[in-house]
Amino acid sequence: MSVLTKAIVADYAVVSAIESKQLVNRAIKIHNLSPVAAAAMGRTLTMAALMGKEFKNKEDYLTVVINGGGPLGKITVCADGDGHVKGDIENPVAETLVKEDGHLDVGGAVGRDGTLTVIKDIGLKQPYVGTSKLVSGEIAQDFAYYFAESEQQPCGVALGVGLNSKRCTSAGGVWVQIMPNCPEELLSQIETVMYAMDEMSYQFKGSTAEEVIRRFFGRFGVTVTESVEVSYKCNCNKRKIDRVVRSLGRDEAFEIAEERGCVEVCCHFCGKKYVYDKEALGKLFK
Ligand SMILES: [Zn+2]
After folding, report:
1. Which fold would CATH assign to domain 2-232?
2. In angstroms, what is the span from residue 259 Cα to ligand 1's centroid?
3. How far is the CA of 8 from the centre of ligand 1 (A)?
4. Which of 64, 228, 67 is nearest to 150 (CA)?
C-alpha cells in the first residue's frame, strides 16, 4: 500500500508527499524493468500520483509523456483522480550505467534532448496540454521546470527510488507548492528547505509520507489535510480492446487468426492479455 499525504505548511505552502515503494515494485514486476528503467519510471509514477491528487473529480485524468531521446525511449505515465496510476516505457531493459558519484545515471538513460508533456483531461471539450523542454532527464528537476515554465507555478519537486538489484527497497516524492501571497521571508526559508530535499529514497526508508513532511517542514507548523491510498491499477477492459481489434479491420484480423490461431492483444500498461479466437472475431465483426 502506498499512502499519499497532503498538508498545509505555515499557511502559505501546500506540501504533498507519497511513499511509493509498492507502486514501483508493481511496475518492475509488470515490465521487468532494469534498475535504471525502474528509477526513471518509478520517479515519474511517483510524481504523477502527486499530481493526480490535485484533481477534483475521480474521473479526471492526466498523462505524462517524457521523451528525452535516450536509451529508455518514451516513458508514459497516467494517473486519475481516484488514486490510481499506471505506466509504460519503450525500452524497459535499457542498460544501467552508474555515475561517478555512485548514483544511477537516470539523466543519461532518459536523455536530455526532448520534452516533458502533461495532458490533463478534466471533462472539458479539449484536454489541457502543457509542454516544456527537459533540463536534466533526472525527472524531478524536469517537473519543477515544467511547473515554472508551463503552469507559471513556483514549486519544489524531490523524487527518489532506492533499489537493491531488481527490487525497490524504498521510494517516495515530495512536492511543495508555494501560494502566491507567501511573505518573502517565509518563502526564502521554505526554499532553503526545498534545496536541501535530497536523497529521497533514503528519506522514505521506513518513514511514512507524513513523517517525511514533518521532518522537513515541522518547524513551520504542519496541518495535515488528507491521507489517501494510491495503487498501480490499469483501466483497460474488453470494451476498449474490442475497439483496438475492430480498428484492424475484418480481413486483417481474420488473416492474423488464420496464421497464429488467434488475435492476441497485450495491454502495454498492465501486461494483461486479451485473446480473440475466430469465433470471438466472428461476433466482433458481425
Ligand atoms: Zn491494462
Report:
1. Hsp33 domain (3.55.30)
2. 25
3. 35
4. 64
Domain boundaries, the chain: 2-232, 238-284
Question: Cα of 236 to ligand 1 centre, how many Å?
Answer: 4
Residue with grid cell 498545509, as numbered in its chain? 8
All cell numbers assigned to 61: 485524468
Q: Tell me the CA–centroid distance for residue 202 and ligand 1, in Å.
A: 31
pLDDT for residue 102: 87
Q: How are beta strands 115-121 and 61-67 bridged, if at all?
A: antiparallel
Per-residue pLDDT of the chain (286 residues; tens, 9 = 90+): 899 999 999 999 999 999 999 999 999 999 999 999 999 999 999 999 999 999 999 999 999 999 999 999 999 999 999 999 999 999 999 999 999 988 999 999 999 999 999 999 999 999 999 999 999 999 999 999 999 998 888 899 999 999 998 899 999 999 999 998 999 999 999 999 998 888 899 999 999 999 999 999 999 999 999 999 999 999 999 999 999 999 999 999 999 999 999 999 999 999 999 999 999 999 999 8
Query: DSSP 3-state assignment of 213?
Result: helix
Measure Cα distances from 58 to 5, 91, 224, 232, 275 in Å: 17, 31, 21, 15, 30
Task: Name the one residue in this structure whose C-alpha cell is 490510481.
Answer: 84
For residue 269, the CA-to-ligand 1 centroid distance in Å is 5
- Measured in degrees and rounded to the nearest 5, phi and psi for residue 187 equal -55, -45
Task: Using the structure block, give the residue that is written with the C-alpha cell 528537476.
Answer: 141
Q: Residue 53 and residue 35: Cα distance in Å, rounded?
A: 27
Q: Is 89 exposed, middle or buried (0-12, 13-18, 19+ CB in 10 A)?
A: buried
Q: 3.40.800.10, 3.40.50.150, 3.90.1280.10, 3.40.630.30: which CATH number matches 238-284?
A: 3.90.1280.10
How far is the centre of ligand 1, averaged over its atoms, from the C-alpha of 285 (Å)? 23
